[in-house]
From TrEMBL:
The lineage of its organism: Bacteria, Pseudomonadati, Bacteroidota, Cytophagia, Cytophagales. This is Membrane protein. Keywords: Membrane, Transmembrane, Transmembrane helix. It comes from the Bacteria. The chain crosses the membrane at residues 45-63, 70-90, 102-121.
Length: 133
């Protein structure tokens, strides 16, 4: 299996697992990560992000024709949920086994890697090459 395919499978599993978790007993942990500045109902925010993760996870593997756009959309999604990760770190919120500031900080630094992998694993970088012309 090529490295890009393997990476897409890993991202897909992560998204599907996390998406399902949004609708389990872990829902309260997800809700605790929604920053105060988000004025919408936390339950609705969690349901929308969970559904989004399920759709993106499935599309990562099943929709080959638009794969590069799915990667870009996933990268944008990962950017939009980053404030929740920052909120978890800044408030010292224990959730999902991240019960130490060092681990929560590491999670912040892993987010840019996930964003990069979302684009890299779904693209042949033509978009980047065209932008440089």
């Amino acid at each position: 299996m090529k490295l890009k395919n393997f990476t897409r499978v890993i991202l897909c599993v992560m998204l599907l697992t996390s998406g399902v978790a949004h609708f389990t007993s872990l829902k309260q942990e997800f809700e605790s990560l929604v920053p105060q500045c988000i004025s919408y109902d936390k339950k609705l925010v969690i349901e929308i992000t969970g559904i989004t993760e399920l759709i993106l996870g499935a599309c990562m593997l099943l929709v080959r024709k638009y794969r590069k756009w799915i990667g870009i959309i996933l990268a944008i999604f990962l950017i939009t949920v980053f404030p929740g990760n920052m909120h978890q770190f800044s408030r010292g919120i224990d959730a999902f086994g991240l019960n130490d500031d060092a681990i929560r900080l590491l999670r912040l630094f892993l987010q840019p890697l996930l964003i990069y992998l979302a684009i890299w694993s779904t693209s042949d970088w033509r978009l980047q090459k065209n932008m440089n012309d």
